[in-house]
UniProtKB/TrEMBL annotation:
Gene3D superfamilies registered for this protein in UniProt: endopeptidase domain like (from Nostoc punctiforme)
GO-annotated molecular function: N-acyltransferase activity; phospholipase A1 activity; phospholipase A2 activity
Keyword Transferase belongs to the record: yes
Highest taxon of source: Eukaryota
GO BP terms: N-acylphosphatidylethanolamine metabolic process
Taxonomic classification: Eukaryota, Metazoa, Spiralia, Gnathifera, Rotifera
GO CC annotation: cytoplasm
Keywords linked to the UniProt accession: Hydrolase, Lipid metabolism, Transferase
InterPro entries linked to this entry: H-rev107_PLA/AT, LRAT_dom
Name of the molecule in the record: LRAT domain-containing protein
Iron-sulfur recorded as keyword: no
């Protein structure tokens, strides 16, 4: 294994409440065996934030929709709520 380093990125810890540890573990276990991976709608970052905070968020998805909509995308509710001004 050697000198490898890992970085913890709990990027919403200062903004969102963190669920209790037993709830995080329950959410993770409830996800075992589920199918439906999608790079923008259901990826590992969605899984991690859904378990930790109870809300599924992916920074890559946010960046994609912001770029695709020329900056008019605003997250509200679920991952694919699109609000055009």
């Amino acid at each position: 294994m050697g000198d490898g380093k890992a970085r913890i990125n709990n990027f919403k810890d200062k903004e969102w409440p963190i669920l209790p540890a037993d709830e995080i573990v329950k959410r993770a276990r409830d996800s075992l065996g589920k199918e439906g991976y999608h790079v923008l709608a259901n990826n590992c970052e969605h899984f991690a934030t859904g378990c930790r905070y109870g809300d599924r968020l992916c920074g890559q998805e946010e960046a994609f929709w912001s770029t695709a909509t020329l900056g008019t995308y605003k997250r509200r509710g679920g991952p694919f709520t699109l609000i055009l001004n």
